[in-house]
Each structure stands twice: as C-alpha cells, then as structure tokens.
Design brief:
alpha/beta; two-stranded antiparallel ribbon; globular; disordered N terminus
Length: 311
C-alpha cells in the first residue's frame, strides 16, 4: 500500500489547521495589578470576562490572551497582536510608560489600541503625546476629571461599536473632559452625557475640577466618556472611561459595547445586532477577583444598585 497519499492528506490537514489558526484575530489583554479593593479596578478578572465573551461570541475566530502584571514577561506575544488592550492603573505608574517605544512599534504596524478606565490616564509630558497619537485622547491632569456619577446615555450613535446597544444609564467613575486631538480629527464620540452639577462638588485639583470644566458642566455641555479613534495610519483605537466597578461587566449594554469595540479595533466584523453575549450574573462576577470579599459584602444590595442578575 502506498503510504504517500495518507501522508499527503495528513499534511494537508495539518497545513489547513495551522493556516486557520494563523488567520484568527489575536487580541492581547494587559491587566494591571490590584489597587482599589474588592469590586473595583479588578483588572485581571475584568479582562478575563471580556476575553471569554469575545471568544465565545466569535466561535473561535478570535484568540484572546490575558497577561497579569500590566506587561508580558515575553514581549514577543505582542508581535502578532491585532489589538492590545490595557486595563490597569494609570498616571505616573502606568505600565505603558516604561514601554512606549515598544508600543509605538506596534502602533506603527497598525495594531489596535484600547485603554479602559484608569489606563486612559498618562502624564501630560510623558505618554500624553503618544496617547494622543495612538488613542486619540487621554485623561490630562488639571483638565480632565474623575467623579463618580450615574451617566444617562439617552442617545447612542450609529457605529459598529454600538450595534445592539440600547440607551442606558449606569453608575461608575465616568471620567470626562478628556484631552483630545486637535479638531477631534478621527474621533467618533461613542458615549456622551450631561454630567449633573454634583460632579463638580469637589474643589479644584489635578483630578477634581478646573474653571473650564466647571463652566461646561454649568452650561450643560455633553461630555464624552467613550470614543473611537480612526488613526491616520489606518489603525483603530477605543477609549473607555468606565470600568471602575467590576459589577458593571454584568450589565449587557456595557459588556456588549466594550466587546464590540475591542473587536472593532482589531478590524473584526461586528454583526448587525452586535456580538451575541451573555453577561455574567452576580454569582459569576464575585469569582476570580484579586481581592477577598469584605465581611460586610451584601450581594443583594450590589445586585440592586448595579441592576444585575442575582443568580
């Protein structure tokens, strides 16, 4: 019996499987360290929820990898990433600051870039110029603000990121008054709302207020809390200022919007109704967090406060 046909078939099957794997979209999540206690800034648990949601919704066409610690030990994992997602603490301790040259190389080759919550903040003179170029905007101290408030998103613009996302309201630490690129070139506002007056109750400070933002809030100017950015080089980016509370990943509107956005930055196709997602119930959200639950943790109260499925 001639063994070569069988070898040829085996080789073809191996080649096809390898080719299919290589053709998958690859998204790398860089999750930061614990910092804010139970239920907040759960970077690793939140990244895992988003990665699992995207993989399930795309039936194996997207490969998601999650790395803890803010930056991978082996930077080579980023070499073929179609998008890089950073969900971590920012400011002067932003993990990107030690790796701006490496990130720049990936942006230059067209990789997508996503920053969630505190990850949108970098120092103005160290990271600010790069984030303007890569993300389209960022949290600039003494200009942007970070109050906790319930944003009422009454209008959802038409964009692939917003497919399947109805108007909604949510309580979070929604940053606003971002520093954006000149003339908003390439920026598409995705979430915007009018902040209530109480967002300005703190005195002026690097994160709390300044005369310009106070005037805009008093005048009822809508503020952008999430945006898409079409970079001039063809790359895509998404900034999302929510994500302080881990519980909001149980909100299907938020989970779908951010999952859609991450895939969009990787040049993936978003179905007309958005990704088919199943938001985790509260009993799933409490699992896998970096911090232990406090003794006074009240699941029923959290479910009511954040409008979650309790079981």
């Amino acid at each position: 019996m001639n063994k070569f046909p069988m070898l040829w078939i085996f080789g073809l099957a191996f080649f096809s499987a390898s080719t299919w794997a290589d053709d998958r979209i690859k998204i790398v999540f860089l999750a930061g360290n614990p910092s804010h206690g139970y239920g907040a800034h759960e970077h690793l648990a939140g990244s895992r929820i988003l990665a699992d949601t995207i993989e399930r919704a795309t039936a194996g066409q997207v490969q998601c990898e999650v790395y803890a610690g803010g930056w991978p030990a082996d930077e080579a994992v980023l070499d073929d990433a179609d998008s890089i997602v950073m969900y971590c603490d920012g400011g002067a301790r932003h993990p990107a600051l030690k790796h701006l040259d490496a990130l720049g190389r990936h942006m230059d080759r067209g990789a997508g870039f996503v920053c969630l919550h505190y990850a949108v903040e970098v120092p103005k003179d160290n990271g600010g110029p790069q984030f303007l170029a890569w993300l389209g905007g960022y949290f600039e101290t003494d200009w942007s603000v970070n109050p906790h408030w319930t944003a009422n998103y009454t209008e959802i613009p038409k964009h692939p990121i917003t497919r399947g996302v109805p108007p909604f309201s949510a309580n979070d630490e929604w940053y606003f008054h971002m520093r954006f690129v000149d003339d908003m070139r390439g920026i598409t506002p995705i979430l915007y709302a009018v902040p209530p007056a109480e967002t300005m109750r703190r005195p002026d400070g690097p994160h709390s207020g300044n005369p310009v933002v106070r005037r805009e809030v008093a005048e009822g100017v809508p503020q952008i809390t999430a945006w898409a950015f079409d970079r001039p080089d063809g790359g895509r980016a998404f900034g999302f200022t929510g994500g302080h509370y881990h519980w909001n990943w149980g909100r299907p509107e938020i989970l779908r919007l951010v999952s859609n956005a991450i895939l969009w930055t990787a040049h993936g196709d978003i179905p007309e109704g958005g990704l088919n997602i199943n938001a985790p119930a509260l009993d799933a959200l409490v699992q896998g967090q970096d911090e232990p639950a406090p003794k006074n943790f009240d699941p029923a109260r959290v479910a009511e406060q954040f409008r979650l499925i309790s079981n």
